[in-house]
Amino acid sequence: MVQLGVAQRFRTLKPSATVEMSERVRDARASGREIIALSSGDPNVPTDPRIIEAAEVSLHGGATHYSSSSGEPSLRESIARRELLRSGVRYDPDDIIVTPGGKFALLAALMGVIEPGDEVVVPQPGWVSYGPCIRLAGGVPVPVAMADAFDVESIRKALTPATRAVIVNSPVNPTGTVVGRSEMCGLVSLAEQHNLWIVFDQVYADMSYNGPVAFPQAIDNAFERTLVVDSLSKSFGMTGWRLGYLAMPPGLAKYVVKFIQHSIYCVPPFIQAAGVRALELSDELLPRYREMFRARVARATEGLQGVEGLLCTMPSAGFFLFPQVDGDEVAIARRWLDVLNIAVLPGTAFGDAGAGHLRLSLSCSDEELDVALDRISSAGVYC
Ligand code: PLP
Prior knowledge:
Layout: H1 8-11, H2 17-30, E1 36-37, H3 49-60, H4 73-87, E2 96-99, H5 102-113, E3 119-124, H6 130-136, E4 140-145, H7 152-158, E5 163-169, H8 181-194, E6 197-201, E7 226-231, E8 244-247, H9 253-262, H10 269-280, H11 282-304, E9 310-311, E10 320-321, E11 324-325, H12 329-340, E12 342-343, E13 345-346, E14 358-361, H13 366-379
Parallel strand pairs: 1-12, 3-4, 3-5, 5-6, 6-7
Antiparallel strand pairs: 2-8, 7-8, 9-11, 10-14, 13-14
This protein binds pyridoxal-5'-phosphate.
C-alpha cells in the first residue's frame, strides 16, 4: 500500500498552548468539574447589542454573498479613521486589508514578506502564535529573551544576514509591558540600518493604562517598513466574530489580497457591517472596557501580593498578569488545575524566557476572580 505522509510544515507545528488549555477546560467542565479559567485570552465582554443588531440588519438586507477580498470600503475607511485618531498615521483605505482576526492578519503579513529560510526575530516571552506563523510562511523564528523591558541591543545581537523582519507586540501578551518611545525609536533605527520589516502587533493598544502606546508606524521613516496587525477581538469583546486587519505601506496590498482571494476569499460581509458599527461606538465602549480591566488587574495584583512564593506587579496594559513564581511553573500550573480547579498557563508556553512565571488571564467574571484569588491565597503557590 502507498504510504501517505503529512507535510513537514504540519508535523512540526506545535499546538497552540492557549487553545489546547481552553479545550482541556471545556472537557473538564463537561465531566462536571467547576473550573475557573484564567487561561484564555477571550475577555468576558459580551458584544454590545448595537453591534449584533448591525450584523442582523446586514444579514436581513441580503449580505449573504461573497464580499470584496480587501474588505468592504466602508469598513476600510472606518479603520483608516481609527488609525489616524490613534497613531496619527493617515492610511489610504486601499492599503488596509480586512482579515478574519488578527491572527490571520499576522499570517498574511508574514506570507507577504518572508522568503523560505528568512529569519524573523521574536522577543520572548511573546504570544504563542508568532513562531508557528513564521514557520507556516517558510521562515525561521529567532527567539530573543527579554527580561522586564524591551531590549533593542539583544535584538541587534540576534541579527544575521538572513534576518528579514522583527515582530513587535506592544502592549505585550503575556507581560502587559508597553514598549517605550525611546526603545521603539531604537528599534526603528535598527530596522533602517539592517533593512528589516517591522511587524507590529497592536491588538492590545486600546488597553494601555498609562497613556497611548508608541506606534512604530508613526515614527519618522518607519511607515514604509511597518506592517500593522490589529483586531477588534479584544477591544470590543468580539473574539468569536473573527475580525481583524492588516495596514500596510503603499504597494503591498495588491499582493496580499491575492493570498486572501485564494485562501479565505473574504470576511463575511455581515461581520464587516458589525465592525463598522463597533468602530462607530469606539469613544463610548473603549474607555469603559479599559477602566473595567484596569480595575480588575489592580484588584488581582493586590490580591496576589501576600501570597508566598509569588511576586506580582501591576501590568501597564491588558488583562494578563505574569507573576514570578518560586519553582517549576509547569508543575505549579498543573497543581492549580488539579487541586484548585484554576486553569492558568505556565510562562514557558510563551517561550523559554517565560520560565519561572505563570500567566493569569483575567478574562473571567469579577465573582470568579474573587473565588480564584481566595483559593490561591489560602492554598498558596504549591497547594
Ligand atoms: N496578537 C496577540 C498578541 C494576541 O494575544 C492575539 C490573541 O490572543 C492575537 C494577536 C490575535 O487575536 P485575534 O485573531 O482574535 O484577532
